């Protein structure tokens, strides 16, 4: 391992100081708090959602903050899941050493990140039930618009019929016309 320029280890196996070169990740545990780790994953997730034709509505600028918040939460879930999987492999029990604060903290953080991700999925219509509800709401809106248009058409026809019954400013009564014949 190399350290900052001019640094020489005092004994074999000594690690370089943590204030070493930029990009030092020796102290990094899971990366869920690190924008260097979270943001690239979040950008990939956001791009994947925006590439999906069924989520075209999320391209509107008003969705950008919610979409980014969801993507960051999903990225944190991924990083924490990978970290805890490694911790589980180290103990060979699949769970990790729950006596260690960093492992317990990671599980708590994972729970919070999963809750935020789930909430974001639901709000954005990215899970099956939310997508179905969104589709239902869109269909209901289209039905309501169709009803309004049909009502407007009916009223317009009635107005034309009333106008057709007026001749030279007088109302022609169809019943009177039939009796005079």
Brief digest:
This protein is an all-alpha fold and 181 residues long. It is 63% helix and 2% strand. Strands 1-2 form a two-stranded antiparallel ribbon.
Key terms:
mainly alpha, two-stranded antiparallel ribbon, 63% helix, single chain, 181 residues, 5 helices
Question: What would your notes on this structure say?
Answer:
This protein is mainly alpha-helical. 63% of the residues lie in helices and 2% in strands. The protein has five helices and two strands. The protein has helices at 35-51, 64-91, 101-124, 128-165, 174-180; strands spanning 166-167, 170-171. It has a two-stranded antiparallel ribbon with strand order 1-2. A hairpin with a 2-residue loop joins strand 1 and strand 2 (170-171). Helix 1 crosses helix 2 and helix 2 runs antiparallel to helix 3. The mean pLDDT is 78.
Question: What percentage of the residues does DSSP assign to strands (E)?
Answer: under 5%
Radius of gyration: 33 Å
Give the biggest sheet.
2 strands, antiparallel
Q: In which order are the strands of the major sheet placed?
A: 1-2
Order of helices and strands: HHHHEEH
Mean pLDDT: 78
């Amino acid at each position: 391992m190399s350290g900052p320029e001019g640094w020489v280890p005092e004994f074999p196996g000594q690690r370089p100081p943590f204030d070493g070169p930029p990009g030092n990740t020796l102290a990094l545990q899971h990366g869920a708090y690190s924008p260097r780790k979270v943001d690239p994953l979040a950008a990939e997730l956001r791009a994947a959602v925006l590439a999906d034709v069924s989520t075209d509505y999320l391209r509107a600028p008003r969705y950008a903050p919610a979409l980014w918040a969801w993507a960051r939460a999903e990225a944190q879930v991924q990083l924490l899941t990978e970290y805890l999987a490694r911790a589980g492999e180290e103990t060979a029990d699949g769970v990790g050493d729950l006596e260690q604060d960093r492992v317990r903290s990671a599980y708590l953080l994972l729970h919070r990140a999963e809750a935020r991700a789930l909430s974001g999925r639901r709000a954005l219509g990215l899970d099956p039930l939310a997508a179905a509800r969104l589709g239902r709401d869109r269909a209901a809106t289209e039905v309501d618009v169709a009803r309004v248009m049909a009502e407007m058409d009916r009223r317009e026809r009635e107005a034309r019929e009333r106008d057709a019954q007026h001749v030279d400013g007088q109302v022609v009564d169809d019943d009177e016309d039939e009796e005079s014949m």
